[in-house]
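Ligand-bound model needed. S-adenosylmethionine.
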Amino acid sequence: MAVPAVTAHYATPGILENMLQALEGMGKGPQTVAPADLKACDEFHMGGAPAAAHLLAQMDFQNTDRVLDVGCGIGGTARAIVCNYKVSSVVGVDLTQEYVEAGTAINAWPGIQSALAGASIELHTASATALPFADASFDKLTMVACIYICVCLYIYVCMYIYIYT
Ligand SMILES: C[S@@+](CC[C@H](N)C(=O)[O-])C[C@H]1O[C@@H](n2cnc3c(N)ncnc32)[C@H](O)[C@@H]1O
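Prediction:
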């Protein structure tokens, strides 16, 4: 029950079309866009990209790290990890399929591909509560503005059960 509620809250039609339109207004497109051009909208949480940058700066990333970003949205944090810390492999998971599809399409834009410089970003539709990876698949994990949602849902479900059963 909780999963459709979360995805219905986040799923937004026309993400790519809206982004392409905004880019056009900046005189850019898939060929010429750089990850920094997306920062006004690809890290959507309190404090935006600067807040995430503060978090990422504490992570002591190594080039060889395999990083998992949980609740990756449209992949803004994953791109920041690759571009700013030269990490070669980031996997993102998010419950909202529309975000994963949009993020995957954005990562395929030639301007973004060029900035990723051969590093791998894979985005998957999956839940933080049922990750489809073997134990010890990753060296580091980031989770930006996602855990409170999982915790809140847990609290709501507990309250519902307590009140109505
Ligand atoms: C506020 S957005 C932040 C997205 C991204 N981390 C960012 O900073 O731009 C929260 C994200 O968490 C995702 N989410 C919520 N519950 C989740 C869960 N149990 N597993 C995976 N993703 C989840 C939502 O789909 C949404 O994309």
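Residues 2-164 form a domain with the Rossmann fold fold (CATH 3.40.50).
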